[in-house]
Structure formats: structure tokens, C-alpha cells
Amino acid sequence: MNSNVEEMNDFFTKKRFKLTLLIVILGAAYIGASMGLGFQSHSLLNIQDGIAWLIQNFIPNEASKGYWHEIVQQLLRTFLVAVAATSCAAVISLFLAVIGAKTLTPAITISWVIRGFSSLLRNIPIVAWAMILLFSFKQNDLTGFLALFFMTLGFLTRAFMETIEDFGTEKIQALQATGATYLQVIFQGLLPEIAVALMSWILYMIENNVRDATLVGLLTGTGVGFIFNLYFKSLRYGAAGLVVLSVIILVVTVELISNLIGRLLS
Amino acid sequence: MLTVNHLAKSYDGEKKSLTDVSFSVHPGEVTVIIGPSGAGKTTILRSINQLIRDDDGEILFDDTDMRQLNRSQLRRARCRIGMIFQNYNLIEPLTAIENVLHGCLGTKSNLAGIFSLYSNREKETALKLLEKVGLKDFAYQQCRNLSGGQKQRVGIARALMQHPKIILCDEPIASLDPKSTITVMDILRDLAINDGISVLINLHQVDIAREYADHVIGINNGQVVFDDRTQALSDAAITGIYQKGAVPERSLVHEF
Fold first, then answer.
1. Testing the interface with B: which of A171, A188, A196, A265 to mutate, by most B Cβ within 10 A?
2. Which segment of A152-161, B16-25, B113-122, B124-133 scores lowest on mean pLDDT?
3. What sequence ranges are listed for the domain ABC transporter (chain B) (predicted)?
4. Which CATH superfamily is domain A60-265 in?
5. Which tens digits make up the pLDDT trace of A131-176?
6. pTM over cut 0.90
7. Could you report the per-residue pLDDT of B187-211, keeping only the tens digit for each?
8. Of B94, B113, B116, which is closest to A181 when you measure between CB atoms?
9. A1 — pLDDT class (breaks 50, 70, 90)
10. Where are the domains of chain B?
11. Helix (H), strand (E) at residue A151
12. Which residues of chain A neighbour B93 with C-beta distances below 8 Å?
């Protein structure tokens, strides 16, 4: 009996030791990194002054009200770019995912090529995409659209491919057993089964792209990102704060709508 | 009707899953394949409509070797071979009637199949088949809301939509409760007796095999160890089928 208790205590002591060790390692990593950067930890003590400055300057005031009209207009542009890029990428992704998924691919080489292609697109950060595309397409909405499009294409192809592979081969075989063709199996079997999952990926991506479109706009000089930059650099902090507020409202609204659609579908 | 000769299959190129399997299935009869798990029952069934490509042998369905067919010929041959599964393999978000209509995809053009352009005649047949399996009132229900027994009956209706000469049943009752088991097995037996369809069933349950089968094939370790009328299935024969290594020595060679 006693030895059991000892054994148990021993077990918990070891667990506690591991947790302590983990905390010590994390602390040491922080100290090491901030020494390397010459980061002065004591400046964190003055953080409240910084926040107070932010609040004083960025709270929209009487003067920034006049900017509403322009902000809403640009916000809509940004939103439309995000939706267009996502839906356009979704259609092409679905096609790529079907011929790329291991369970449906006509040849395994095609599957590997598509996998590599999508991971290449996906792993270039959106900011890098925007800057690269700026050279060829200059500052306009198309540049932002393309940057979002390529990133989304990479991401959705991968997500759709995994959804299709999770679907398995059993039901595909069941339809093949009736004598159905490849395309019939896809349209009559695969798509109805994965439609809800596809839809929730697309909605997720629209949410994400509305956020990213703001950032991309900052670089490509379009949409709500551009006017934020403009107001900010011309010291109109109140108006810039209003832009941030409107972006938050848009993102939250999109998220709520997408949750609602998700619930209606399932 | 269906004759399988010297069928062989190996999944990894070394250990044989099937070694030299031969048997025949006759019209209007219920043929049951029994044997321990992993004996190769599923492999046999799926080789018949070539969902699994076998390595060697001959599968004569209406005097044509299924193994020699090209893609479109195979499609046409599959139209006359119905199949039902342990996990039903219905398209769950679709309704029962849509799933039944999938049974005639093989006879339709690509586009008609993709866009669900079924003729009135096909729709009427589908409804009649649902009535036949006792699910007329469930025609417009999503399959995900049906019970296991109901799903399996939709599966049977889908197979019947193909106007099959033979129905392959891969463990059709393994996921069902006792009551649904009887309903499903009764339907399958009626198909053999009344419609003259050959029914080939993989089973685990020996008692069900005894009750419903006309003809029993025992498989152990990838070989046929029993092939006779059900009356000949004695207790000794069953022990033989389920015994480990109840096969002629030559198959043991692969194990050691």
C-alpha cells in the first residue's frame, strides 16, 4: 500500500519538475533573445504612456466624421476584391484538387505536381506576392486581386484536396460499381458529400482575405489600406482610427454572416 | 452465369491473398461465401466487378472474361452487376430516390448523368423499387437521416435499378441489428426466388448462411475449402472452414 503511494508521489513530482523546467526554458529563451536584440525590458513599464497616446490621438473626433463617405466607399472596394479573389480561386482550386487528390487523380505524377504547385503558392507570404506583382501590374486593384488570388489558390487547393482524400474511396467505388463514369462519380457522389465542407473553407477564406486585402491595399495603393496609409502619414490620426474601426466592423460582420451560413448549411 | 476460375491475387507481391480460387454461381440461387476474417472473401467479391484488379485467373460473366474488358466494356458489364456494402456507401446528403437513381448512371450519357437528367420512366422505376423494399414514404428523405436497415434497403434498391443479373453483397448485415438483418436477408432471398437474380453474399454468420443459402462456399487462407449445397454443410465442415490452416499444405509454403 505504502509503496503505491510513494510511487504515485514520485510520478507527480516528476510531472511538476517537467513543468518547472519548461517555464525556465521559456524564460531563458526570452532573456536570451532580448539581449541579442538589445531590447530593454524596463521600457515595458512605460507601456501605459504609449497606450494613452494611442487613445488620445486615434479616437475618431468631430473632424474625422467628414471622412465617412470615402472610407465606406473604399471599404466596399476592398471587400469586393477579397470576395472576387476568393470565389475565382475556389473554382480553380476545386478542379485542381479533384485531379490532384490521391483517390481520384488520373496519374500520381499529376498529384505531386499539383501538391508542389499549391505549396509554392501558399508559402510565399501575401506581402511578398503583392510586392512582386507591383512590378508588373502597378498600383491598382488588379494587383491586390492577383496577390490574394494566388495565395488563396494555394491554400484552397490543399484544403480541398485533403477534404476529398478524407472522403475515402469506398463511396467512389460504390458508384463505379454501377457503371458510372469518372465525371458522374464526381458530380453525383463526391460533390454532394463534400459541399458543406467546401463551403466552410470558402467562407473562412473570405474572412481571411477581407483582413489581408487591407494590408495588400496598403502596398498596392488601393482600397481601405491606401486611405489608412494616407491619413496616417498626413497626421490625420482621427480619420485613420476611423478606418481601423470600420475594418474591424466589416471583419466581424463577415465572420457573423459566415457563421450564420455555416449553420444554415449543416 | 458466373464462373470464377483459378483466381489469384496478392497485394504486396509476396504473400498471396487468394491462391487459385474457382467456383460457379447459378441463376436464381443464393450463394454464400463464409470464412474467417482476412480469408479473402472481400477480395473475391470485388474482383468480380473488377473494383480490385486481380493478378491471375478468369472471371466469366455471361461467357465474357471480366478481366479482358477495356474501360467502356467494363462499364457496360458493371451495369448488370449490382453491389451492396457493409457500410451501405450511399451518398448521405442526397435523398433516397436520388441514391436509387444512381443505379442507372451506367446506362446514361456523361452529361445526363452529371446533371441528373433522368427520364420519367427511370424515376417511376426508382419509386417502384423503393416501394418494393418498403421505403416509398422515405423517397424524399436525406439518407443521412435513415436507420442502418433502411440505408441497406436503399442500397438494394440502387442495385436493382441496374436491372442486375447478379447482386454482390459484401457483408451486407454486419452493421445491422437482428430485426433489420432478417428484413434485408428476406429481401435478398426473394430477389433470387422471384426475380431469378443470382445473389452472392459474403457472410460472417454461419447460422444465417445455413438459413438463407442454397449453395455455400467456404474460404480459408485464400483457398476454397468447401463448395457444396447448404445441406452438406455439417458441423465438421464448418469447423474445417474456420480452423486455422485448414488448407492443403501447399498454401502453407507461403507462410514459412
1. A188
2. B16-25
3. 2-246
4. MetI-like (1.10.3720.10)
5. 999 988 988 889 999 999 999 999 999 999 999 999 889 999 999 9
6. no
7. 999 999 999 999 999 998 999 999 9
8. B113
9. low
10. 1-80+164-256, 90-163
11. helix A141-167
12. 192-193, 195-196
What is the overall mean pLDDT for chain B?
91
The residue among B227, B237, B89, B105 whose CA lies nearest residue B169 is: B89
pLDDT-based confidence at B54, cuts 50/70/90?
Answer: confident
Closest residue in B to A182 (Cα) is B110
- Report the DSSP beta bridge partners of residue B58: B5
Q: Where are the domains of chain A?
A: 2-57, 60-265
Q: How far is A97 from chain B (nearest CA, A)?
A: 18
Residue of B91, B118, B168 for testing the chain A interface, max A β-carbons within 10 Å: B91
**CATH for the stretch B1-80+164-256:** 3.40.50.300
Is 50 exceeded by the pLDDT of residue A191?
yes
**Nearest-CA residue of chain B relative to A184?**
B114
Q: Are B103 and B158 in contact (CB under 8 A)?
A: yes
Taking contacts as CB-CB distances below 8 angstroms, the residues of chain B near A196 are 93
Residues of B whose CB is below 8 A from A170? 85, 87, 89
- Residue found under cell 510513494: A6
List Cβ neighbours of B127 (8 Å cut-off, separation of 6 or more): B97, B136, B139
Rg over alpha carbons for chain A, rounded to the nearest Å, is 25
Distance from CA of B112 to the nearest CA of A (A): 9
Asked whether the beta carbons of A180 and B102 are under 8 A apart, the reply is yes
Measured between CA atoms, the residue of chain B closest to residue A169 is B89
